[in-house]
Amino acid sequence: MTSRRFILALLLTALAQLVPLRAADVARPNFILISIDDLAYADIEPFGSKLNRTPNLNRLAAEGMKLTSFYGAPVCSPSRSSLMTGCYPKRVGIPNVLFPGNATGINAAEHTVAELLKARGYATACVGKWHLGDQPEFLPTRHGFDHYFGLPYSNDMGPAADGVKSNLGDPLPQNPKAKGQPPLPLLRNETVLQSVLAADQTTLVIRYTEEAVKFIRAKQDGPFFLYLPHSAVHFPLYPGKAFQGKSRNGLYGDWVEEMDWSVGQVMDALRELKLDAKTLVLFTSDNGGTARGVNTPLRGFKASTWEGGMREPTIAWWPGKIPAGATSGAMASMMDVLPTFVKLAGGEVSGDRKIDGVDLWPVLSGQRQESSREVFYFFRGNFLEAVRSGPWKLHLVARGAAGAKGKQAKEAAAASEQPPILHNLDSDIGEAKNAAAANPEVVKRLQALAAKTEADLGTEQAGPGCRAPGRVENARPLIDSEGKVRAGFEPKL
After folding, report:
1. Cα 43 from chain centroid?
2. Could you read off the pLDDT of 348-407 as tens digits, one per residue?
3. How far apart are CA 356 and CA 358, in angstroms?
4. 362, CA 20 to 30 Å: which among 44, 99, 167, 182?
5. Domain 383-461's class?
6. Catalytic residue numbers, as ranges
């Protein structure tokens, strides 16, 4: 009998080796994505900061991989649309910043990373700034997130009298009745908890952090996806009480250091619960920093397509899976999060709509030095302003003149008479030297890549490959100018 059992066991083992491993049999990792608002490239020590102390991010980088060529978008809503959909912002109809009460937002037809992970059995939560539309149809709970706690848009989008146009300690306007944007709502799922005033701004980081850690503890049996987009370090600057006046870099440094503390709290929870071996953490920023931060060695700041406007300080961490202390200069972007996470979860990206992201896992795992991305397009709004392939980046200064308005039109008109501007980002990351004259074939190749997208995304207007955003009728704020909460969003008694 024993001999028969032994032989049967051998046969079953041999047969098992012939059966392909199913996606459902693969251990599904947890995912945590921490995004800071307006963090500049050199605002944290792993990326060169000499002003701000970031010990938790130092440890994250020492135990993980720094991604030194990771791109967002020039401003926040477009970058977040890339993250959620795996697409260029223009493709999904969100090329510009959304404001309170906008009739447009993320389209329900798009497949978000949260929806695709939820279909794989993941618990999902968004804690922090959303900024993909504040109408009911656009909120996180309608796009794959089981739980939401945070602000539907930036922390400066409210009435000046509420302190959202003034940094901590600055005087508030003398006319509290002056009309402006509606009050800033703090949401839990689809309930408005309160209007956010100046004092409340100082509590955002700690409240977001507590909510994030609470979710991790509740869902520790996994798998889970936690998206933690902080309102910090966006203007107005409101560091928490425990951090005020503690840095060497004023209010801005105080808030950067509080943000680092928040990262530490999340990481401590993972280690305490012994989830570190099965959790991928990605830390990044939505767009380039402002002049309040330090973008060295990059040129430009937020709202531009210079490297300083779109290249983000990014760290990927997963002990035992991502090489410790590694650095990768592979071209990567917010768009790559969706296909990378979904594939690691054992799922597939739906083929019913085109996406632009690529699977970054071969780079993150150290199997490849370069990503599979051939080209990256730098859009500001609908205008294609630059294109990169390999180390070469070509600024298309003549583009954007037709149909542009205001400041952008003046910039385009002034630049349209200039020759092309080419930079080798490997040797000239600060985009200081025009290498076009010495490399005419490179210029020609990148111009051809730019022209190629005319039939897809378009270079000045929305092209045939662009999809419509979500749109509603009778859009209105969640809290009106008189402080009345929109029907259906009132706290439940």
Report:
1. 17
2. 998 899 999 999 999 999 999 999 999 999 999 999 999 999 999 999 975 544 445 566
3. 7
4. 44
5. alpha beta
6. 76, 131
